[in-house]
């Protein structure tokens, strides 16, 4: 059992981790500016779409985000069942009072199963607000997805998109692929790219690396990944900690991810949720700092003053945005 004082000891360093805008990003599409609200995704829990026993536990687990899975978590001969179940969940509003995000991971485009996933899951007036695209590899794939979504949804509907980076090629091309997503969005593609997920298991298989509990073999790839994601103000979701019985190891890796700049983590077992979500939450001290900074800024604005100092430091707009982001995130978490 993980003790509270041990948790506090590990979490203390991450007070400084919330240094990048988290809750809002200003996006320019042509002449239109859109401010996107932050959807918390500290813990993203996978739930196989064909497993009603696990699906029925969603309401009691408390993760920020649940991913109804059509991909790796579902055997090939159960794909149709998963699609049908997921469509039923949304059409019948089975989790209409759920405060957490309820999203869907479709199969990869290269698998040949993606088109049927989209046609089934997006059929009807009610469908998920967020889609996960695994194994993003090429611009051609993104073009195909944009065309398919436009065919199914039209141009007036924007679905939230989360992409997965799971190979050496995708990691090296990540900047260009993200930029292409934004180009497509600027051209009217019916999706909004919000986050990127690092698929460590497929990545290790691709480069021939051996997974270790310390994940030393992934230090460079995780740093490269989070840098690319944050350069475009996307949420960066860290790797799965496979040993769901090792709570100490999970905590260490979660804190490490938060310190590296990740905003959340994939989880595969309900026991992982609480530790992960605490690790990726701003501390009470950081929230108080943000509240005082914003209040001081407002007071200086009312008095007609420009630049000012706060706790001995000159305040600039990025730091002010950081403070507002922390407060927004805290408010969203309180609401959940």
Output the keywords:
336 residues; alpha/beta; 8-stranded parallel barrel; two-stranded antiparallel ribbon; 16% strand
- In spatial order, strands of the major sheet run 3-4-5-6-7-8-9-10
Strand percent estimate: 15-25%
- Termini Cα gap: 26 Å
Low-confidence stretches: 12-35
How much is the average pLDDT? Answer: 88
Helix content class? 40-55%
- What would you call the structural class? alpha/beta
> How do the SSEs run, as a string of H and E?
HEEEHHEHEHEHEHHEHHEHEHHEEH
The 3D shape can be described as: globular
| Number of alpha- plus pi-helical segments | 14
For the sheet with most strands, the description reads:
8 strands, parallel, barrel
Rg over CA atoms? 20 Å
How many beta-strand segments? 12
Description of the structure:
This protein has an eight-stranded parallel barrel, surrounded by four helices. It has a two-stranded antiparallel ribbon with strand order 1-2. Strands 11-12 form a two-stranded antiparallel ribbon. Strand 1 (26-29) and strand 2 (32-35) form a beta hairpin. Residues 12-35 have low confidence and may be disordered. Helices cover 45% and strands 16% of the residues. With 336 residues, the protein is α/β, with parallel strands linked by helices.
Secondary-structure blueprint of this entry?
Elements: H1 4-11, E1 26-29, E2 32-35, E3 43-48, H2 52-55, H3 58-61, E4 65-69, H4 79-91, E5 101-105, H5 114-121, E6 130-133, H6 139-153, E7 159-165, H7 168-172, H8 174-186, E8 191-198, H9 200-207, H10 219-231, E9 235-238, H11 247-260, E10 264-267, H12 273-279, H13 284-302, E11 309-310, E12 313-314, H14 317-335
Parallel strand pairs: 3-4, 3-10, 4-5, 5-6, 6-7, 7-8, 8-9, 9-10
Antiparallel strand pairs: 1-2, 11-12
Helix pairs in contact: 6-8, 13-14
């Amino acid at each position: 059992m993980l003790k509270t004082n041990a948790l506090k000891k590990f979490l203390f360093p991450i007070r400084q981790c919330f240094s990048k805008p988290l809750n809002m990003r200003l996006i320019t599409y042509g002449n239109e500016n859109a401010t996107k609200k932050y959807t918390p995704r500290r813990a993203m829990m996978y739930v196989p779409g064909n497993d009603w026993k696990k699906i029925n536990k969603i309401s009691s687990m408390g993760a920020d985000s649940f991913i109804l899975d059509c991909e790796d978590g579902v055997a090939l001969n159960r794909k149709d069942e998963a699609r049908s179940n997921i469509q039923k969940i949304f059409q019948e509003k089975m989790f209409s009072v759920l405060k957490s995000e309820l999203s869907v991971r479709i199969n990869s485009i290269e698998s040949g199963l993606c088109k049927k996933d989209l046609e089934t899951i997006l059929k009807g007036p009610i469908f998920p607000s967020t889609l996960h695209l695994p194994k993003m590899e090429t611009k051609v794939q993104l073009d195909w997805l944009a065309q398919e979504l436009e065919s199914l949804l039209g141009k007036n509907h924007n679905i939230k998109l989360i992409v997965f980076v799971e190979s050496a090629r995708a990691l090296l091309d990540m900047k260009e692929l993200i930029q292409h997503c934004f180009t497509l969005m600027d051209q009217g593609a019916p999706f909004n790219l919000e986050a990127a997920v690092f698929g460590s298991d497929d990545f290790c298989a691709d480069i021939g690396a051996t997974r270790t509990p310390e994940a030393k073999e992934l230090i460079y790839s995780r740093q490269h990944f989070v840098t690319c994601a944050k350069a475009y103000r996307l949420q960066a979701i860290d790797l799965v900690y496979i040993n769901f019985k090792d709570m100490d190891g999970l905590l260490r890796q979660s804190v490490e991810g938060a310190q590296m700049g990740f905003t959340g983590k994939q989880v595969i077992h309900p026991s992982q949720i609480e530790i992960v979500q605490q690790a990726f939450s701003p501390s009470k001290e950081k929230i108080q700092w943000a509240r005082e900074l914003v209040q001081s800024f407002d007071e200086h604005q009312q008095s007609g003053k420009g630049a000012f100092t706060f706790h001995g430091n000159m305040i600039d707009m990025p730091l002010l945005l950081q403070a507002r982001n922390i407060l927004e995130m805290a408010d969203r978490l309180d609401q959940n």
